[in-house]
Amino acid sequence: MLSVTLTLLEGLVVTLELFGLTLLFALPLGLVISFGSMSRCAPLRRVVKTIVWVVRGTPLMLQIMVVFYGPGLMFDLPLLPRFTAAVVTFVINYACYFSEIYRGGIQGVPVGQREAGLVLGMTRSQIFFKVTLLQIIKRIVPPMGNEFITLVKDTALVRVISVYEIIWMGETYIRKGMIWPLFYTAVFYLLINGILTLLLGWFEKKMDYFR
Amino acid sequence: MAILDVQHIEKHFGATRVLEDISFQMEQGQALAIIGSSGSGKTTLLRCLNFLESPDQGKIVVNGETLFDAADPATQKEAEVRKKRLHFGLVFQSFNLFPQYTALENVTLAPELLAKERPDFRTRKREILEDIRLQGKNLLGRMGLENRADHYPHQLSGGQQQRVAIARALALKPDILCFDEPTSALDPELTGEVLKVIRELAEQKTTMIIVTHEMAFARDVADQVIFMDEGIIVERGDARQVIEHPREERTRQFLSRYAEGVEER
Prior knowledge:
The complex is a heterodimer. By secondary structure, chain A is an all-alpha fold. Helices cover about 80% and strands about 0% of the residues of chain A. Chain B has helices spanning about 40-50, 80-85, 105-115, 120-140, 160-170, 190-205, 215-220, 240-245, 250-260, and strands at about 5-15, 15-25, 30-35, 55-60, 65-70, 90, 175-180, 210, 225-230, 230-240. In chain B, strand 9 (about 225-230) and strand 10 form a beta hairpin.
């Protein structure tokens, strides 16, 4: 039991690294993409919207394989390291989902807020940072929370390019005739998502002082 | 000299002409009421004065200074427009208070941000901020909200929110304070407290432009009344005269519809 736990923890580290790195890069990238999808420049907007459509419209598992095998097969380029390929795919994929959440949050703030700031002589950046930003954050916390939890579980997909995350580690025991370690991995997911749920709930409560 | 001189303002939205050849003047300390049915261009006119829309034609002159001239792009630079807006204050129909700030913070936010641009802000920071806070408290007191200063907008009634919004606009000491149907979003029993505050401001000779559907209020509080219809000024004159003895047929029709209570709101 202890040795199984230790082995699974090794996989869990990979899972958490992938989770953390994805958030680290996809959160800012998503904001950039959302600005693109709301741009006044129509060609840019169309390009960005098409990219978002493709990324959200195809399976993440397929995207992982394309990013890892694609450059070598199509252009004879050297393969990316497996873990790097996984991170790149996850960042792009999640940034697209995040961008739509940001867009909803930004467009959900009534125009009157911006206009009130304008007539009070505020600059655009003052309006963004002092007036709208907190309202946007409040709006996007619940849908973001959903994505975070989905992301924890989606990390399992990287096994298709043999990144040794926790499920992979659990599966290795099947060869030794043990199935329970694979089921046992669920406990780790539940723990992580339990902690996430608590954190998100706490943050939502923090934002509860205004409506 | 007139404090406000609006000359030949014209505004289109696409092919629709919303304002046509709007001209009027106002003197310091006067209250001007603008009446007219929905879609007559009243709100657009206020938005033009506050630079939320820019007119296609015409000039806006405040205290002899040309703030906007459609023919002169130099008057339309973004950075300067921001400063020019400060000549006007605007109270919105839907209040538009900032939900994450208390009543007092709503009032003091803009003055604090502006104070940061003052050259002596660094050295006298505490003094200046304390001063702004005090003025904010005073303004809320004048609105009858001294014990609501630390409430958030969602904890206040509509009438209270609108009074906070009036205090917020007054905090920047605008030359001309504009009201865009300030009581239209309120329950009937709450309009009184807002109208009372505006009435007091008129008594203190605050220069104001009030777009309103409250005819009796316009008659009693305003010096001048403008009646607008389909983007033009149909009639303009002394408040009592326009509302009680309109000269124009269209004004008469509009007012009689009001008297019968047929007109929405």
